[in-house]
Amino acid sequence: MVRLLRYGTIFGPLKDRWRYLYKTDLYKRRIEAGPEPERFRSALINWNYDAELHACTHRFGEKINIESLRHALTDSSFLNQIVKQRTEAGLAANDQTTLSFTHNEELAKRGEQIAEDFLRRALQYWYPKFPQEGIDTITKFLLSEPTIADISSGLGFKTLIRCDVPSPHSTMLKKAFLAFIGAIDENNDRHRAELFVADFILTHLVGKDINEIWHIKNPMGLLTKVLEENGRQAPESRLIWATGVSSVLSTYVVGIYSNKEYLGKSAGATISIAEEMAARDALRRLFETDEQRAPIPFDKLYKKGLLIDK
Amino acid sequence: MSFNKAKQLATFSRVWYLFDAKWQCPHASGERIARILRGEHKPIYYPGESTGDCVVAINTRHIALRNDAWRAEALHIRREYAKTRYDIPLFKLHELDPTKVLHLCTMNCMPRDSGRRYDLARLYTFPDDAVPSHLIRNVSDQIRGSRTTPQRLDDLTPDDIEKFPQMFKWPKELVVDDLDRDKFVRVLSPEELPKRHVMLGQRAGRQNYWFHVPTTRHEEVKIN
């Protein structure tokens, strides 16, 4: 009832004409002013970088020297910016050698090396029949810029990185994260760094199918090659059953056999798609990466028998 | 196409079934067909979802109703106004539309909700075994009927009857050759057929008939 009475009346802050005009004008001015410029987190008053670094080491449970952590989180752009500022201020080139810190390029390379080695070893250990090319592709995917940047920003490196832009680019995020791994290696040991990789990079495979990350262009050709290497006969595809052939939801189920021995099967909307998917299914069964395969035990890889390198 | 898409397709595709209704009880087969049309035989079944399969039922002209149902049971039609309801006996209904009885029996086995007609639209019925090629191509499976098809005595050749193993021989005076029908059945001439009494006048309204022949008011309707 109340709603009915109020409907169509000017009520509240816009009741007075002058107030309405005032609010409209404020709104227009805000639109004209545009969005707020991005600011560094350190520009805000409640920022304590040392405390943040300290919290970072405790967050991951890693015992890292604060200075080396600061080193790992310093991007080269930050250094360039300081050098530029000093040059503008009139300092000579030889004065600039007294800078007490360097950027994280070296550490990042070290971290990347550790991560790549470990990932390759772990994947090869858990999927022993998966081809080398596939393992390379998955390692590359896990160490690619979008993946690592995603992990890095998720772990809160976004505000910790020292760089010349308020929100760091994905290259900076990646470098800082890998340098952090390098810093763990430097301060503790390699085993500790590998555990970190297993916890935070390898777990990115959760919910993903490694057969789809490594996209095989010609599955039937690869299947023929693999069977030939194993000394088996060439694959033969058979239509198992089809339904609703002339309807919209047509389904064909094609099976792949080698010397009358079942390799795999799959459904598809057309025969050619079904055959291709059946070849993929046969491949993942041969590589032992199919759905029945247990997921990677991320925290128990060493307990399960992965050999410690070096 | 990814593995998940293939899995999705294999799970949710509508499978086409063939059902041969020859000598089948439409009530029993209606239950089976309704179950499949609603998708109740699938593990993914959920009442609100459309998970059913398609059924092509053939030979519906040759269904076998129980007992005296062809004569005794009827389709009751109420036409919303007073004195406009009438019954169609099933033998007459079957003459008018040979697929109707199976349709009605299937519909009867589905819950009376708004989704029933959508499920029923996936049932294709044909009076004989002639099915359009675009439908029969879809079929990939069949529903087994609940009744075995009986073999009638007049389907057998005299040789088969002779060769049928006998446990003992009847004495000759007790045997009547009842396969010779002309001995027992007489074909009536049209004059001898009983005339149907057509009512005229006050009680000739359509509420007194189980059939209704729509005509113009002034046309004379003759029913024999």
Automatic annotation (TrEMBL), chain A:
GO CC aspect terms: mitochondrion; ribonucleoprotein complex; ribosome
Gene Ontology terms: biological process: RNA processing
Keyword Metal-binding: no
Positions of the DRBM domain: 218-288
Main location: mitochondrion
Protein name in UniProt: Large ribosomal subunit protein mL44
Subcellular location: Mitochondrion
Family matches, as InterPro entries: dsRBD_dom, Ribosomal_mL44_DSRM_metazoa, RM44_endonuclase, RNase_III_sf
Automatic annotation (TrEMBL), chain B:
UniProt superkingdom: Eukaryota
GO annotations of cellular component type: mitochondrial large ribosomal subunit
Keywords from the UniProt entry: Ribonucleoprotein, Ribosomal protein
GO BP terms: negative regulation of translation; translation
Any one GO molecular-function label of the UniProt entry: mRNA binding
InterPro entries: Ribosomal_uL13, Ribosomal_uL13_sf
Gene3D superfamilies: Ribosomal protein L13
Family: Belongs to the universal ribosomal protein uL13 family.
The protein, known as: Uncharacterized protein
Organism (species): Adineta steineri
